[in-house]
């Protein structure tokens, strides 16, 4: 089964990337893997405090994931899987793609700010020629109706 890998973060554009991945998976018989990455700078404290912070970050991620997962199950009939990794985003995304041979497409949401599409899109675009899978970049301000029409 081909999986669409989508990144769960706190950005607004994440929503459209999630919608696109779920709709495409539902229409093509694929699956969705949702990857959330905990950056290392969150744990620059004493070991006991870092462990508590790490657990709190994981709990926040699971709560955030459940919102998207419920929508995917209820509306698209897709049961997504959650993967949580720790480290720098781009290397962790690439590691996840290498480790899961079922991942066929990386789906990213592009920001709508004047500063550009966002750090992930910018960094991965530079490496796009050597990525092991195609990348789909979903505009952050695309309407639900337009998303449905193109998926």
Chart the SSEs and their pairings.
Elements: E1 3-7, H1 14-28, E2 31-38, H2 47-76, E3 81-86, H3 89-99, E4 103-110, H4 119-126, E5 135-139, H5 144-150
Parallel strand pairs: 1-2, 1-4, 2-3, 4-5
Compact description:
This protein has 151 residues and is an alpha/beta fold.
What would your notes on this structure say?
47% of the residues lie in helices and 21% in strands. The radius of gyration is 15 Å and the shape is globular. With 151 residues, it is an alpha/beta fold. A 5-stranded parallel sheet has the order 3-2-1-4-5, with helices on both faces. The model has no long low-confidence stretch (mean pLDDT 89). The longest helix is centred in the middle third of the chain and has 30 residues. The chain contains 5 helices and 5 strands.
What is the residue-mean pLDDT, rounded to a whole number?
Answer: 89
Multimerization status: single chain
Percentage of β-strand residues: 15-25%
H and E order? EHEHEHEHEH
> How many strands?
5
Name the shape in a single word. Answer: globular
Q: Cα distance, first to last residue?
A: 18 Å
Tally of separate helices: 5
How do the strands line up in the largest sheet?
Answer: 3-2-1-4-5
SS content category: alpha/beta
Low-confidence stretches: none
Report the C-alpha radius of gyration, rounded.
15 Å
**Main beta-sheet strand count, sense and barrel state:** 5 strands, parallel
Helix content: 40-55%
């Amino acid at each position: 089964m081909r999986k669409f890998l989508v990144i769960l973060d706190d950005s607004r554009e994440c929503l459209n990337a999630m919608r696109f991945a779920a709709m495409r998976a539902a229409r093509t018989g694929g699956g969705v893997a949702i990857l959330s990455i905990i950056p290392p700078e969150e744990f620059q404290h004493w070991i006991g405090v870092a462990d508590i912070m790490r657990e709190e970050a994981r709990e926040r991620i699971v709560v955030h994931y459940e919102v998207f997962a419920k929508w995917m199950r209820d509306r698209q009939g897709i049961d997504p899987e959650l993967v949580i990794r720790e480290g720098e985003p781009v290397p962790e995304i690439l590691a996840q793609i290498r480790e899961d041979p079922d991942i066929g497409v990386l789906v990213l949401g592009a920001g709508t700010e004047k500063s550009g599409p966002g750090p992930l899109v910018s960094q991965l675009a530079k490496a796009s020629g050597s990525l092991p899978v195609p990348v789909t970049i979903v505009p952050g301000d695309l309407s639900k109706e337009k998303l449905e029409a193109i998926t």
